[in-house]
Specification:
The model is unreliable at 184-197 (pLDDT under 50). The protein is built from nine helices and no strands. The protein starts with a helix and ends in an 11-residue tail after the last helix. It is mostly helical. The protein is elongated, with a radius of gyration of 19 Å. Helix 1 (2-16) runs antiparallel to helix 2 and helix 1 (2-16) packs across helix 4 (40-65).
């Protein structure tokens, strides 16, 4: 049913999706849909959770396999995986991580991008021994928001993603994060003067 949902949202959008259409596409009785999901939002939430788990698994594997020492390789890997899912995962280009449905679809206390930023921070902090600070987490949260907006722009009119927009997104994020995170990296282990971030 989740596979059918993913295909349908690309064809008809979230607004056009119905449980009846879903049952027909999945080849099951409508009662079977309601046995597992009370409504179409619940189906999309389950699909979004599946996509999040797939993304985080791939991201963790790719970052672990990255043989460089600089955190930017991890950030670029996160971007590349996000773009790859837009290009290859049915339904993802339409739903992203569920914000089309609900900004708090992944976690009732955090918006969807905040969940992604938190998970990304955990991966980068573990792999690159980055300082686990409010400054690092805030910078990554801003970067995730910017990346999300720019990648949506890249795919708005081009199903394969506009490479020029993708390239500009990487440049913008790299420059921003270098400005925010390099000072944090160089001051790790040093005592900061009072009142300084």
């Amino acid at each position: 049913m989740l596979d059918a949902c993913a295909t349908l949202v690309d064809e008809v959008g979230y607004e056009g999706l119905t449980t009846t259409l879903l049952a027909e596409r999945a080849g099951v009785a409508i009662g079977s849909v309601y046995q597992f999901f009370p409504d179409k939002r619940a189906v999309v939430q389950a699909l979004t959770q599946r996509n999040l788990e797939a993304y985080l698994t791939r991201l963790t594997e790719q970052v672990a396999a990255y043989d460089g020492a600089h955190w930017w390789g991890g950030v670029e890997t996160a971007l590349d995986e996000y773009i790859h899912m837009h290009r290859t995962t049915p339904g993802f280009r339409t739903l992203h991580f569920g914000d089309v449905v609900d900004m708090n679809l992944l976690d009732t206390s955090l918006d969807n991008n905040a969940v992604i930023a938190d998970r990304l921070a955990g991966v980068l902090i573990d792999r690159f021994a980055m300082p686990d600070s409010d400054r690092v987490r805030f910078a990554l949260a801003v970067a995730v928001e910017a990346a999300d907006a720019l990648i949506k722009l890249a795919f708005r009119h081009d199903p394969a993603g506009d490479d020029q927009v993708v390239t500009e997104a990487k440049t913008l994020l790299r420059d921003y994060l270098h400005g925010q995170l390099e000072p944090a990296s160089t001051t790790r282990g040093k005592r900061r003067p009072a009142g300084k971030p």
